[in-house]
Amino acid sequence: MYYLRMQGRVTGPFTMDKMKALRARGILQPFHELSSDRANWHAASGVADLFPPVATEPVATVASPAPAAQPQAVQGPAWFYLDSRKERCGPVGEEVLPFMIERGEFNKKTLVWTSGMAEWSPASEIFPRLFNQYVSSAGAESSSCSIGKLAWLMQGRALLLLIWPVVSIAPMILLFGSFAASIHGGPLAGSGSSGFKVGVLFQYIFFLAQAGFAIFGALELLRLGKNGNNFFLVAGYSELAATSVLLAVYSVFTMVLIFGLLRDSQPGSTKAIGFLMLAAYTFGQGLAAVSILVRDIALARFAFAANQWVGRHFTALAALAGIMTLNTLVLGIIGVAVLSDDGGGIIEKFEGMAVFSMAFVISYGVGKWFEFHHSLLTLPIASSMRNTM
User: What is the largest CA-CA distance in the chain?
Assistant: First the structure.
């Protein structure tokens, strides 16, 4: 019976038949560690029943000095590396590094060392061809600079969405305060109107910051798409289109509220404009959700061959983005249903439509919950993408 240690995680115990099954599925590799007592660990390559002849030959070649005529041998020196917890691991042969890259155990910033080196060095300096070939095999002929920029922009946008619930407390207080002041009138009515305008302006500034991240991110997606990845092209163009539509809607909406442009308009005209803005807003939000969905799918496809961990997690992000897309459409349908009712103002409409009101609140809450978790998961996944690709 053996315990198996992979990336610091210990599982088992497993029988020899189970270990052979793990090896056959590609899960167990020679560089993984085994133990029968969870105290003394050794490389799986040392178990002859699992990795006979071929897996043990590199150890012999490393142990004895190679003659000058042997540099062209397939097996190279034994390498040690520092894992994510800065613990020394190894030795492993260069031939197993691609498997480690696939499983997220090794990347270009991993520090490596072998006999004869004065100090630990980043893997990208020691194995430049390995990483260039590996990224190329995944269809990533775009420069790593584009991937790095895209990762930073994704993290910046996600961080902005995460801190917004905290930062938005002030403008929300202003909005609710202005609403209460306008209802009760009196000396606070004027300050309520000013507070409302400040709150609306604050929301607009936040959207402009978010739009900046979206636009620059879309440009990086288009650069990546020039190498033949149509998913990146679709994601980039849909992101630009969504941001343009939402920027127009937010700009018009902000101008109308701050300057009171519809104050003297007829009720019919106001309602028609409201329908138009709601339709444009729903279209823009839906397009934005679709662009995030396509972007996550594109990055999952792009990353999977180079780092399966990143690929799998971008697939999870794509699933969340798909739910966000459906939720946006539900919100739009509910909004149209509410505005289609002629029974008084917006508050009266919601009071008289308990089902739609409840559906709106639940759908909005679910959407924000998924958006929050999508942003939260984006931070470490984008960081891993930047470090390994």
Answer: 96
Q: Nearest CA to 127 among 60, 187, 79? A: 79
Domain positions in the chain are: 2-64+74-136, 141-388
Task: Please tell me whether residue 344 adopts helix, strand or coil conformation.
Answer: coil
How far is 191 from 283, CA to CA, in rounded Å? 35
Confirm whether pTM is higher than 0.70: no
**Residue 216 confidence (pLDDT):** 92
Alpha-carbon distance values, 155 to 84, 340, 342, 350 (Å): 20, 39, 44, 37
Closest CA to 292 of 244, 236, 367: 236
- Which single residue is written with the structure tokens 């190498």? 227
Residue type, 270: T
Pair 281, 249: CB distance under 8 Å: yes
Strands 88-92 and 79-82: antiparallel
Yes or no: say if 161 and 372 are a contact pair by the CB < 8 Å rule: yes
* pLDDT of amino acid 62: 45
